[in-house]
Design a protein that fits this description.
By secondary structure, this protein is α+β, with helices and mostly antiparallel strands. Helix content is about 20%, strand content about 30%. The longest helix is centred in the middle third of the chain and has 15 residues.
């Protein structure tokens, strides 16, 4: 995985995903989205993972997305796809 998305397992059943682009307010770049998709796919294929925590590095609040200088907001709550 790239350094922009860190993944670890805690207590054998908890997946911890850490966004690691504090210099860009952890906004979602294309590279970061690719890494997140791979991590999520790995989690889906891991029957021992029962919970996932998404956090950020160094207390930087997420800034939405950054695609070629364009700022993209995250979708409203309830619009995501559950497991």
């Amino acid at each position: 995985m790239g350094d922009c998305v860190l993944y670890s397992v805690c207590q054998e059943t908890i997946g911890l995903i850490t966004l690691n682009r504090p210099h860009a307010a952890n906004s979602l770049s294309s590279e970061m989205i690719d890494h997140l998709q791979r991590v999520i796919e790995d989690i889906k294929n891991s029957p021992s993972i029962r919970c996932v925590i998404l956090t950020d590095r160094e207390g930087v609040d997420g800034g939405g997305g950054s695609h070629g200088g364009r700022h993209v907001k995250a979708p409203p709550h309830g619009r995501g796809h559950g497991r």
